[in-house]
Amino acid sequence: MRNTTSALPVYKNWVSLKLVIVPGVLALGTAVLTAFYSWLMIFPAIFLLMVLYFVYARYLFSPKGKNIQAELHSMLIEEIEWDGKGKALDIGCGNGALAIRLAKKYPEASVAGIEYRGFSEALCKQNAEIEGVSERVSFKKGSIISLPFEDDEFDLVVSNLTFHEVNDLRDRRELMEEAFRVLKGGGVFVFQDLFLAKKMFGNLDPMLNKLSGWGAKSVEFINLSESERIPNILMTPFMVGTIGIIKGNV
Ligand SMILES: C[S@@+](CC[C@H](N)C(=O)[O-])C[C@H]1O[C@@H](n2cnc3c(N)ncnc32)[C@H](O)[C@@H]1O
């Protein structure tokens, strides 16, 4: 049932405050040091520029700015080709924003979200209640490395900007094989991530071939690195400049 209070959902900004605070502290520290070593002068300027960049990036991603987080969710959702009947999973769901949007778009579906770092079931549930979909959305703590679900449980699996965050695997492309494990035959997948970052995912063609080897019947890559829906200033290699979508079915 829709909550009648004026409360708004709380979705964490993807640009963490750490990215502002750390260069801020370094700017101050190196500024103090320039009193003794004037040749250090360039460093406070560089760190200050970093602070300004990340403050602006936070603003652009937030609803008070250009709401780019919601825009990226829209870009993923628009690529889903699914009848909305059955169960969906969002891997690395954060505070539930994308899982909740799926539940709103597909009124006949039930949606699960799993999150590992900083998981707050209470906050996810509160957001789902505010958005009026709490009866069809559930949240669980779990890692994408070993999903806490049986084989063939879901009709749709999505993931947004989560794979690139996982560093404790030799080959992070194998995370997609784990996602396929929980998809039913004929099930649909749509993953949005920094797939053009070769250091993270290797070359595109071998990665897409691997997905076919792991059971994908169709695989398509959509290059979003020149999308006009994302401001140019965010299209840097350390933001979302290497973003793309891999979609298909198993
Ligand atoms: C950039 S955020 C995106 C959050 C969410 N997918 C969204 O679109 O709003 C990346 C998310 O991946 C999560 N994450 C990182 N490592 C994970 C893991 N091993 N298993 C599940 N989630 C993970 C992070 O905690 C974070 O919430």
TrEMBL record:
InterPro entries: Methyltranfer_dom (IPR025714), SAM-dependent_MTases_sf (IPR029063). Pfam families: Methyltransf_31. It comes from Sphaerochaeta halotolerans. The keyword Transmembrane applies. This is Class I SAM-dependent methyltransferase. GO terms for biological process: methylation. CDD domains: AdoMet_MTases. Residues 86-195 form the Methyltransferase domain. GO terms for molecular function: methyltransferase activity. The lineage of its organism: Bacteria, Pseudomonadati, Spirochaetota, Spirochaetia, Spirochaetales. Coiled coil: none annotated. The chain crosses the membrane at residues 15-36, 42-61. Keywords: Membrane, Methyltransferase, Transferase, Transmembrane, Transmembrane helix.
